[in-house]
Write a structure and sequence with these properties.
This protein is of the alpha/beta class. The chain is 54% helix and 12% strand. Strands 7-6-5-8-9-11-10-12 form an 8-stranded mixed sheet, with helices on both faces. The chain has a 4-stranded antiparallel sheet with strand order 1-2-3-4, sandwiched between helices.
Length: 535
């Protein structure tokens, strides 16, 4: 039996191919795992830390197991069977997890933290065995490839180098190409198929036609796929219908519509509306977006609508702010910066964010800080609506960034920022305000009613909160009702700033620590019930 097993030793070249594919699939699975979970639980540091940490733990176990396994059964057939089993179990991950994630999506929508947390852990456990098996491949391949001690260093170095090269490919290909084009599930299945092909071809080389018995695996996977693939990952919210669902390089995107024809943009876990649109109504029910209309009126009165002649938006989403500004202030030039091309596509198709409906809007699909500096223009208003805890781009929160913003403002320009908070924890708001005050002479805050959002307004010239009311009193009766309503609500929503000794800089911006603490304390203090009432 041993002679039969040993007689068909694989060539090192084929072993190198196997470890290359194995390394590529390991990283592809890790990155696809973050997207699989991010579709429901978001892409916060907590999610990333759990995914990366547990994948590394599973790989560590795999290295130890693979080394002992290869000594116990140093046969190529065993090696190839490990490959095909890792392929089969990897393909099962998105299929088995889909009903679990649907349950989790419902739990997130209703703020059922217990069910959501249990689902999160369950899905992560699904990765354990296939990733452990993938971790077995490199030590097992070294055992098969080394034929004399004199070449052991060279061979083991080559195997780990080629495996790492495969991991490099697996880092970029899923995120940049496959997930946006195929989606998370098909990306999983494609890499699992590559693994299976390599494994089954290896078995064919060593054991012949009898290895075809393993073809039951793809048959089972295809059967399960056609059973579970129907329906969206996250069902629409009660009273809404799903118009659109897609995955981009950055987000899981849904567009939902209510009976009035109002459309809403939801991303990832669906906690929060990122854009809103109605063909006949520019209002938003005093949600966050209309508060940005009030920002320039913190300037010293008299300040009129004609004084607003340009706008830049970092975090354009599907264009609600741009649409409202165009309605109130006319066809002023607007530069809208959005990093996610998938969101821009959804905005064009479902929110009138296109050159026909909004010819004054210049859309830039780029990072906000880079694009703003590259534009080199002076604006009346700059809006930053890219903060939504716990997803905060830290480089858009620093003193250095705000100096760059101020240099892009007119002499009486204003900056308006949407910052998250909880009902009892305003540390992030206060830290952002203290950072802004390092750059701007005056900063004001408005709490958006029935939400977890505060709008911070920083003015290039010294200003007073009472300017908002004074400017409203000077407004002609002909101003748009949406602006008058926004100013009225804004006046009643002005709050005092707290004191903070935290200042974010490019060198040190401890956002993750602050936000993680904010979220954990919110949940531990019974904040789930507040989340339900605010949604």
């Amino acid at each position: 039996m041993i002679d039969q097993e040993m007689r068909s030793q694989p060539t090192n070249r084929y072993l190198y191919l196997c470890v290359f594919i194995g390394g590529m699939c390991t990283l592809a699975i890790e990155l696809s795992a973050s997207r699989l979970l991010g579709n429901v639980f978001g892409t916060s540091n907590i999610v990333w830390a759990n995914v990366i940490g547990l994948i590394l733990l599973y790989l560590t176990v795999g290295y130890f197991v693979g080394g002992r396994w290869s000594d116990h059964s140093p046969y190529p057939q065993t090696f190839y069977r490990i490959i095909i089993w890792s392929a089969f179990l990897s393909a099962l991950i998105p299929l088995v997890s889909r009903p679990v994630l649907r349950t989790a999506a419902t739990a997130m929508a209703t703020a059922n933290a217990g069910v959501a947390g249990g689902s999160f852990i369950s899905v992560l456990i699904l990765f354990s065995i296939p990733v452990i098996l993938l971790g077995c491949l490199s030590p097992f391949a070294i055992r098969l490839a080394v034929t004399d001690l004199g070449s052991s260093g060279r061979v083991s170095g080559a195997i780990y180098g080629i495996s790492t090269l495969g991991s490099l490919v697996g880092t970029f290909v899923p995120v940049l190409f496959l997930i946006p084009e195929l989606g998370t599930t098909l990306t999983f299945l494609l890499f699992a198929a590559l693994l299976f092909v390599v494994g089954i071809l290896g078995l064919l080389r060593t054991t012949g036609a009898k290895s075809l018995i393993w073809l039951w695996m793809p048959i089972v996977i295809l059967t399960i796929y056609f059973i579970v693939r129907s329906g969206p990952l996250r069902a629409p919210f009660p009273g809404l219908i799903l118009l659109y669902e897609s995955e981009s390089p950055y987000n899981y995107i849904q567009v939902q519509e209510d009976v009035s024809g109002t459309r809403y943009l939801f991303l990832n876990e669906g906690q929060g509306i990122h854009s809103q649109w109605n063909s006949t109504n520019y209002g938003d029910g005093n949600r966050t977006w209309s508060f940005f209309l009030t920002a320039p009126y913190f300037n010293t009165p008299p300040f009129m609508t004609s004084d607003v002649d340009s706008l830049a938006i970092i975090g354009l989403a599907a264009g609600t702010i741009a649409r409202q500004y165009s309605y109130v202030y006319g066809d002023i030039p607007i530069d809208g910066i959005e990093i996610d091309p998938g969101i821009v596509e959804a905005g064009s198709r479902f929110f009138d964010m296109n050159p026909v409906k909004m010819p004054n809007l210049n859309v830039l699909i780029e990072d906000g800080r880079y694009a703003l500096n590259r534009l080199g223009r002076d604006y009346s208003v700059i809006v930053v609506d890219a903060y939504r805890p716990p997803y905060i781009p830290w480089h858009l929160t620093t003193v250095e960034f705000f100096y760059e913003v101020k240099s892009s403002l007119q002499s009486d320009g204003v900056l308006a920022i949407n910052v998250g908070r909880t009902p009892s924890d305003r540390r992030l708001v206060d830290a952002m305000a203290s950072t802004l005050l390092e750059v701007f002479p005056s900063v004001h805050a408005m709490d958006v009613p029935n939400s977890f959002n505060t709008i911070l307004v920083a003015t290039a010239l010294p200003s007073e909160a009472t300017n908002l009311e004074a400017n409203l009193a000077l407004m002609p009766s002909s101003i748009r009702p949406i602006l008058r309503d926004a100013l009225s609500v804004g006046i009643s929503s002005i709050v005092s700033l707290g004191v903070s000794d935290v200042v974010f800089t490019d060198d040190r911006a401890p956002l993750e620590t602050l936000v993680d603490s904010l979220v954990i304390q919110f949940l531990l203090s019974g904040g789930v019930s507040d989340l339900v009432s605010a949604s």
